[in-house]
């Protein structure tokens, strides 16, 4: 009888001992089913079940394929009570290190979203010699002392500067002089807190009070007022960076937002127009050349021109010069929407029709020459040079030669945003609509025909928080939609493709012993994501010997592969289920015996669950029940081995999540459940639940059984730190009591654009199992 050589046997047994590291060593087969992929996950000591947010989810937890960022998903961002979003603008940054930003206008100012949180301020790095007044003047770009004083107060409030002192002064002034106006009270507080250090005493406080109140009242308050000079409070000098709120400039209802070609933000309000470049604000009114201070719409031209619609006409800012147009050119003075076309062409929507400016000539369109409705409420000029016109009851598309009309009864179009050529998002009073142009097809007769477009509807019953969509903006492949209740995001998932490689057991120095993992995940439109994987271990070439150990002239190539299909299904936001179907081909000794002897084949199934934001925001729970399937045999069905039925449980918590820094802590627990009989067939995995996990040995106590099972659990702990979504640092620890293994993993990740590179390294103490000490893993992930 032939057998695998001792060298080959040693390799395989070593893999069983040191790579799976189970208490049930030798009881299960197909170790490839347990070999983890991904240098990111392995850099976390293989703690990844509750994370599962990249292609590695195909192994650790396929339920991750049912949630963002692996699956298309809807997210709703309700703002604070009393804050109602009104408009949105965005742009996907292409420059290195730049963060994508979403700007949202509300009934009470501006919000900015940079991927981690919503903010109402800009962060300013304080320089030597800075003071609050200079910073306020720099940002506001004004010398108006009243406005600057107000800006300083807002900056102090945002950063907590002198707030305890201000509250103390307000309290004593309100108690002593209840008839004092709010403005007068604030004036006194500002004056006392603005005293120079040498004046911060009883006399200084009295001097401020005596010039603003009667002397009797000043005499009674100066002592209490001077107490603020001894109070501990946040000081400007204590800060390294400063939050400068947008409200120092814009504090009323926002009617329109646009980003120009230089990423400057243009803000339309009911009281004028603002421009913000990230460092300072500029204010425009009728004194600057606008027809009215009530801004209704904005548009950016191909050469950075800015068109501004108002309730009294339209104005264009070109090369620093304003040009206004009134009812001599327009069918109505109230402008509802604006869109630039090619250079020199501007379309203006009003309640009484559409006007086109071409060079110096104006043309008016209405229902007699093209429009579906005279009330034009939205305009967009797309990449195919067609004009989209929204109004009451539908859409008109004008391509310079023809008018196409699409009716949506009882609807009013509010906004358009083009995703890609032939794909458009539409906001209406009844929800959102997506338009996908029909692909032109050629028939058997050689004639081409274009099928009708595909329309899809989203509303509060199937996707949105809120019904009426007032504005839409596209950022990359994502769409942002504004309703009365929330800012809604359609988070489009990328396809992902990963390649992973590692040399196994460096302590054995076997060059042809290696492991690769290939994975690809492709999201569907609305039903989760599918994946395909190859998990492959190469054992190298081995020699076949007879029973006496004599080498026979047969050399064979030994390998093992698991070929899988994955699927993740969203159940609701933050909850998904997953499934893996795996075909196993184990060619440990392909030339052994006759026919297929030495080759085993079987299949396995994984079932998984992932719940994010469990109880608290940022806490995730994952569960994966792996390798449910029939046993595998290589020679005889009577000599079958069980698959490594395994349960993975994990928790992950995002400790810090900001646009610049993210930190999460992850822990996993693994327990392999196998019961094999070397004199008969192994127990099926469902029976092994009892025979291996629950059944007690003779004379064994419950406490002894509990401790025995606890020792067979492998624990993994990992920490992942991201900086600027570019650099990742990882640290992990794995503890396997039965396998006598303690490993420290370190990892590094780099991400730029759609490409990510990860590497990890294993360190094992000398007194422990060192078979994997010094083992490197690398992986490359591509998003498309």
Task: Explain what you see.
This protein has 784 residues and is mainly beta. It folds into three domains: 3-72 and 493-783, monomeric porin ompg (Porin), CATH 2.40.160.40; 75-111 and 250-491, Methylamine Dehydrogenase, Chain H; 122-245, no CATH class. The protein has a 14-stranded antiparallel β-barrel. α4 (132-140) packs across α5 (145-159) and α6 runs antiparallel to α9. The chain is flat and about 100 Å long.
Helix/sheet category: mainly beta
What fraction, in percent, of the residue positions are helical? Answer: 10-25%
CATH-scheme architecture of the largest domain: Beta Barrel
CATH class division of the largest domain: Mainly Beta
Cα-atom radius of gyration: 34 Å
The largest pleated sheet is described as: 14 strands, antiparallel, barrel
What is the CATH third-level topology name of the largest domain?
Porin
- As residue ranges, the low-confidence spans are 1-26
Mean pLDDT: 88
CATH-level-4 superfamily name of the largest domain? monomeric porin ompg
Please provide the count of β strands.
45
Shape: flat
**Portion in beta strands:** 35-45%
Distance between the terminal alpha carbons, to the nearest Å? 53 Å
| Number of contiguous helices | 11
């Amino acid at each position: 009888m032939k057998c695998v050589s001792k060298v080959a046997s040693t390799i395989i047994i070593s893999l069983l001992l040191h790579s799976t590291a189970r208490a049930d060593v030798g009881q299960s087969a197909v170790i490839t089913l347990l070999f983890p992929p991904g240098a990111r996950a392995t850099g976390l000591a293989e703690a990844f079940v509750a994370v599962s947010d990249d292609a590695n989810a195909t192994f650790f937890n396929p339920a991750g394929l049912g949630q963002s960022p692996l699956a298309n998903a809807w997210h709703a961002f309700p703002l604070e009570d009393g804050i109602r979003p009104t408009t949105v603008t965005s742009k996907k940054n292409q420059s290195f290190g730049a963060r994508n930003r979403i700007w949202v206008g509300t009934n009470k100012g501006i919000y900015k979203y940079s991927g981690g949180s919503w903010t109402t301020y800009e962060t300013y790095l304080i320089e030597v010699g800075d003071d609050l007044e200079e910073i306020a003047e720099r940002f506001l770009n004004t010398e108006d002392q009243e406005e600057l004083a107000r800006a300083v107060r807002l900056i102090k409030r945002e950063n907590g500067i002198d707030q305890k002192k201000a509250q103390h002064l307000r309290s004593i002034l309100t108690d002593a002089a209840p008839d004092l106006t709010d403005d007068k009270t604030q004036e006194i507080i500002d004056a006392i807190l603005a005293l120079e250090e040498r004046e911060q005493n009883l006399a200084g406080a009295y001097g401020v009070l005596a010039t603003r109140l009667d002397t009797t009242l000043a005499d009674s308050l100066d002592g209490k007022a001077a107490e603020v000079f001894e109070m501990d409070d946040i000081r400007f000098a204590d800060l390294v960076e400063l939050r400068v709120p947008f409200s120092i400039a814009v504090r009323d209802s926002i009617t329109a937002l646009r980003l120009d070609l230089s990423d400057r933000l243009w803000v339309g309000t009911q009281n004028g127009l603002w421009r913000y470049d990230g460092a300072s604000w500029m204010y425009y009114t009728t004194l600057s050349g606008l027809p009215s201070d009530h801004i209704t719409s904005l548009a950016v031209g191909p050469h950075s021109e800015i068109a501004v619609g108002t309730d009294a006409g339209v104005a264009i800012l070109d090369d620093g010069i304003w040009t206004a147009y009134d009812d001599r050119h327009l069918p109505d003075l109230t402008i509802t929407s604006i869109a630039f076309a090619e250079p020199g062409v501007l379309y203006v929507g009003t309640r009484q029709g559409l006007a086109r400016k071409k060079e110096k000539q104006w043309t008016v369109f209405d229902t007699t020459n093209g429009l579906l409705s005279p009330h034009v409420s939205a305009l967009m000029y797309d990449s195919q040079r067609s004009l989209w016109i929204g109004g009451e009851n539908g859409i008109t598309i004008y391509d310079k030669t023809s008018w196409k009309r699409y009716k949506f009864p009882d609807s009013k179009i509010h906004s358009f945003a083009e995703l890609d050529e032939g794909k458009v998002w539409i906001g209406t009073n009844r929800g959102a609509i997506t338009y996908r142009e029909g692909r032109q097809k050629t028939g058997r007769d050689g004639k081409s025909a274009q099928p009708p477009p595909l329309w899809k509807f989203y509303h509060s019953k199937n996707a949105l928080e809120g019904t009426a969509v007032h504005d839409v903006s596209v950022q990359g492949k994502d769409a942002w939609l504004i309703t009365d209740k929330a800012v809604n995001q359609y988070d489009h998932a990328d396809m992902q493709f990963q390649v992973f490689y590692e040399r196994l057991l460096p302590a054995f120095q076997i060059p042809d012993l290696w492991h690769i993992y290939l994975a690809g995940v492709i999201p569907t439109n609305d039903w989760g994501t599918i994946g395909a994987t190859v998990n492959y271990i190469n054992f190298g070439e081995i020699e076949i010997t007879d029973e006496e150990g004599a080498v026979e002239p047969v050399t064979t190539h030994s390998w093992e592969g698991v070929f899988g299909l994955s699927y993740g299904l969203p159940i609701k936001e933050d909850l998904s289920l997953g499934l893996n179907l795996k075909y196993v081909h184990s060619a440990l000794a392909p030339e052994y015996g006759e026919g297929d002897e030495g080759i085993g084949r079987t299949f396995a199934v994984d079932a998984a669950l992932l719940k994010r934001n469990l109880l608290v925001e940022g806490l995730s729970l994952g569960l994966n029940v792996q390798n449910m399937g029939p046993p595998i045999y290589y020679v005889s069905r009577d000599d079958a081995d069980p698959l490594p039925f395994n349960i993975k449980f994990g928790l992950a918590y995002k400790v810090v999540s900001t646009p610049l820094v993210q930190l999460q802590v992850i822990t996993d627990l693994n327990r392999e459940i196998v019961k094999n009989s070397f004199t008969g067939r192994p127990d099926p995995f469902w029976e092994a639940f009892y025979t291996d996990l629950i059944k007690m040995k003779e004379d064994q106590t419950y406490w002894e059984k509990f401790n025995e099972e606890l020792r067979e659990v492998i624990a993994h702990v990992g920490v992942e730190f991201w900086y600027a979504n570019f650099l990742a640092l990882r640290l992990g620890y794995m503890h396997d009591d039965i396998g006598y293994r303690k490993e420290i993993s370190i990892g590094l990740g780099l991400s730029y654009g759609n490409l990510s590179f990860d590497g990890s390294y294993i360190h094992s103490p000398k007194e422990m199992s060192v078979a994997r000490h010094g083992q490197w893993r690398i992986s490359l992930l591509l998003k498309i």
